[in-house]
Write a structure and sequence with these properties.
Elements (H helix, E strand, L loop, with lengths): L3 E10 L8 E5 L4 E5 L8 H15 L7 E6 L10 H8 L3 E7 L5 E2 L8 H14 L11 E4 L2 E4 L19 H6 L16 H7 L4 H9 L15 H16 L12
Parallel strand pairs: 1-4
Antiparallel strand pairs: 1-2, 2-3, 3-5, 4-5, 6-7, 7-8
Length: about 250
């Protein structure tokens, strides 16, 4: 699983996001963007962040290091902002930490991203059903001249339908992905070629899901343990990997 780091100080909120992430300092002397388990979106978006970040790394994409941030709500006593206090008090235990990239810039258009990188990002978003890499919100950073992919919480939407139990992986496997206003939609004609070069395996899927802390794998009917939930995630991703019905411009395998 991802490394656990204790939060030592809450620094400042990041108010451009609806879930009110914040900058925090950790016991390892690192600085992180913290996404809180007590935010309205819940822990499943943290699960998606970890899994998709791991898959991005396996595709050769750059994405910030992730840690599990162990938060003691006692830190809230020193915050004057009541909204921040409420969020800290609602988020005891493990939260998601994303390594802060000092001096990073936002996405500056297609010219700032090599075609091979853009195509792999497009493929990743199609595979994980990410709906949040649009012109309005690219979720890309430029750091030391390289593109870094961030914010994957809107991926893997299928787990939000698990309140009554794990659903059928076949539906997600066959669900087409709408390229819509994706920032790299112009590369759609080349997507099949990069698809042929990607060698993601079921072993990669297992390893990516294994990165998720047990504390975020909340029981649902029929999947009561973290390992059963991990198996469910692997089953959904494996079923999707076995077809290309979801890939824009490609026919089902």
């Amino acid at each position: 699983m991802i490394e656990t780091v204790r939060v030592t100080r809450y620094v400042t909120p990041l108010r451009e996001g609806g879930s009110l992430p914040g900058i925090v300092e950790g016991s390892d002397l690192g600085t992180y963007v913290c996404k809180f388990r007590g935010a309205g979106q819940g822990v499943r978006v943290l699960v998606a962040e970890v899994i998709v970040s791991a898959l991005a790394t396996r595709l050769g994409l750059r994405t910030p290091r992730l840690v599990a941030l162990d938060l003691d709500p006692e830190i809230a006593r020193y915050e004057a902002d009541e909204e921040v206090q409420d969020l800290l008090n609602a988020s005891p235990g493990l939260n998601l930490g994303i390594d802060f990239l000092p001096g990073a810039f936002g996405y500056e258009g297609e010219a700032s991203t090599p075609a091979e990188v853009a195509l792999r990002i497009l493929w990743l978003d199609a595979f994980t059903a990410n709906v949040d890499r649009t012109w309005r919100n690219p979720n890309l950073l430029l750091w030391h001249g390289d593109a870094w992919v961030i914010d994957h919480g809107a991926s893997l939407y299928f787990h939000h339908a698990w309140s009554a139990g794990v659903t059928d992986p076949a539906r997600f496997a066959a669900q087409p992905w709408d390229v819509g206003d994706h920032v790299f939609a112009a590369y759609i004609g080349q997507l099949a070629s990069v698809d042929a070069a990607i060698d993601l395996t079921d072993g990669d899927l297992v390893a990516a899901v294994a990165d998720v802390p047990d504390a975020w794998l909340e029981a649902v009917p029929g999947a009561d343990t973290p390992e059963q939930l991990r198996s469910a995630y692997v089953a959904f991703l494996s079923a999707r990997l076995a077809t290309r019905a979801w890939l824009p411009g490609a026919s089902a395998a």
